[in-house]
Automatic annotation (TrEMBL):
The keyword Membrane applies. This is DUF4260 domain-containing protein. The lineage of its organism: Bacteria, Pseudomonadati, Pseudomonadota, Betaproteobacteria, Burkholderiales. Keywords: Membrane, Transmembrane, Transmembrane helix. InterPro entries: DUF4260 (IPR025356). The chain crosses the membrane at residues 7-27, 33-54, 66-94.
Length: 129
């Protein structure tokens, strides 16, 4: 599929996800955030999958909005700039989740196929032979 990342670039993007996850885990306890909170909200961005109940286009938009670093970084920065720990906490957890997904190869979704992401196809691939 056009737009699919392959080869070394794909592995670099997955390594980047591991780095973001590691950085988020490293910095998370600095402001005395609770690890229980981290565990509770770590999978919250995956609630965006509910968008697929309204079709693949809506689902892809909802998923991509919840799995883009843009929103997570805005949340994180706003929390630190305005001294709102709940936003800082949410931003770090959100970044950790996205990094985790990218490390596993779950990228941003294309609207036509749930299993096709910018990091390639996800899921089991049967041999076409």
């Amino acid at each position: 599929m056009a737009g699919e990342t392959t080869g070394a670039v794909r592995w670099i993007l997955r390594l980047e996800g591991i780095c973001v996850l590691a950085a988020a885990i490293f910095f998370y306890p600095a402001p005395d955030f609770s690890w229980g909170c981290f565990a509770l909200y770590f999978l919250a961005p995956d609630l965006s999958l509910l968008g697929y109940a309204f079709g693949s286009r809506v689902g892809a938009v909802a998923y991509n909005a919840a799995h883009s670093y843009a929103g997570a970084i805005v949340c994180l920065v706003a929390g630190f700039l305005f001294a709102l720990p709940v936003f800082s906490c949410a931003g770090v957890i959100w970044c950790a989740h996205i990094g985790f997904d990218r490390a596993l190869g779950y990228g941003l979704k294309y609207p036509g196929d749930f299993n096709m992401t910018h990091l390639g196809r996800i899921g089991f691939q049967s041999d076409p032979r």
